[in-house]
Write a structure and sequence with these properties.
Length: 391
């Protein structure tokens, strides 16, 4: 209360008729101009009870330089709001990246367990895509995200990308069912090699010598890790390579086929449409390659724990859809280079987590090969920057 008393008396003096003579008016203007910044400092510093004082009248504020002070106050408030928004957005982005990593870790663990018990990659892929499609329809039904309006021409352009997305997932599951999780992700670290190759072939993009140089440790590291991998299997190796080719073909061709069409869809809806179309395309492939395997009767005939298997398959499907959706959302908030670096770190986290969980034996040479490949990916991510726009 003692701190507010002088301020209160000053506010009375500003509006008191007794000080409106010539000398008094001049002295009042000086004291007001000196007191108002002090009041603003107190308010900005957290002395909230000062807000209860009677504000000066607008004419007097304008006459005592209050216009400049008010402008400074508005600018300071806007800057504080921007800082608060920036901190909140950074915290939100950090939480999304952590969730992205965790969902990817749990997907690989649960998916590997399901594939070991039920080695049907086409069926598992269809189940995962069906689970994701169900979540998407619920999202649209409860109006958690706007439902997209698609034309036949858009669907025709997205369909080939959905086919690549579906087949890439099939081959990833095929590789995970044959070799260790760590080895699959070491092979998938060679994705930049296919990106450079396909971009040059389809888009006519010529990579720089530095970018080409970053591919050397990637290819060499994958080769070294393959030669010393305990769980090496040719089906697992070529399946992971096919997954790289299909996934990067999807990414490169999306620029060529969609053009500006994807601008009609936001990132979430583009991923959602891809998921649903991928599921529809996976059904005939599943029936042709494996038939109907994911039925209670068949699972009971194998002697597997039906409840545990279904729970793990559902969790794998949820994590699969969740981490891919988060990847699209993160990419919409950061640059492609930042996303590539984060994806490289994610692969390291997945490899280390899977090695610890499954107790995968790794030799020193194998670890060096994996490290070289991941180091090359990180270097590639830093070098592969967007070309500056011409003025």
């Amino acid at each position: 209360m003692a701190a507010t008393a002088p301020a209160a008396s000053r506010s009375v003096a500003w509006t008191s008729p007794r000080h409106r003579d010539g000398a008094g008016n001049a002295s009042t203007r000086v004291s007001a101009a000196a007191a108002l910044p002090l009041l603003l400092v107190r308010v900005r510093g957290g002395t909230r009870h000062a807000m209860s004082m009677a504000p000066p009248s607008p004419p007097l504020l304008m006459s005592c330089g209050g216009r400049d002070v008010a402008a400074r106050a508005v600018a300071a408030a806007a800057e504080a709001a921007d800082d608060a928004g920036g901190v909140a957005e950074t915290a939100r982005l950090g939480a999304m990246i952590v969730a992205w990593y965790l969902l990817n870790i749990y997907f690989n663990i649960y998916n590997k367990q399901v594939l070991e018990a039920l080695p049907f990659p086409y069926t598992i892929t269809a189940f995962q895509l069906a689970f994701g499609s169900l979540i998407i329809f619920l999202m649209w039904a409860f109006k958690l995200h706007p439902t997209p309006k698609l034309t036949t021409a858009q669907l025709a352009k997205i369909a080939p990308l959905a086919a690549g997305h579906m087949l890439g997932t099939v081959f990833t599951n095929m590789s995970l069912g044959k070799v260790a999780v760590s080895f699959t992700h070491t092979i998938k670290a060679s994705e930049p090699f296919f990106t450079v190759l396909l971009s040059a072939f389809f888009l006519g993009e010529t990579p720089s010598l530095l970018v080409l140089g970053s591919l050397v440790p990637i290819v060499g590291g994958v080769a070294l890790a393959s030669l010393t991998e305990v769980s090496f299997n040719w089906i697992g190796f070529w399946s992971a390579m096919a997954s790289n080719l299909l996934n990067q073909s999807r990414n490169v061709l999306s620029k060529k086929l969609l053009g500006g069409e994807e601008e009609a869809l936001d990132d979430i809806n583009l991923f959602s449409v891809l998921t649903i179309l991928s599921f529809l395309l996976s059904l005939p492939l599943m029936l042709f390659a494996e038939g109907v395997k994911f039925t209670p009767g068949y699972l009971l005939s194998t002697g597997l724990n039906l409840q545990e298997l279904c729970v793990r398959a559902a969790l794998a499907g949820f994590c699969f859809h969740g981490y891919q959706k988060l990847s699209y959302m993160i990419l919409a908030r950061v640059s492609p280079v930042t996303h590539s670096v984060a994806n490289c770190v994610k692969r390291v986290v997945v490899i280390v987590s899977s090695v610890l969980f499954f107790r995968t034996p790794i030799s020193l040479v194998n670890a060096l090969g994996t490290g070289a490949a991941l180091g090359g990916v990180f270097l590639y991510s830093r070098l592969k920057r967007t070309k500056p726009k011409e003025a």
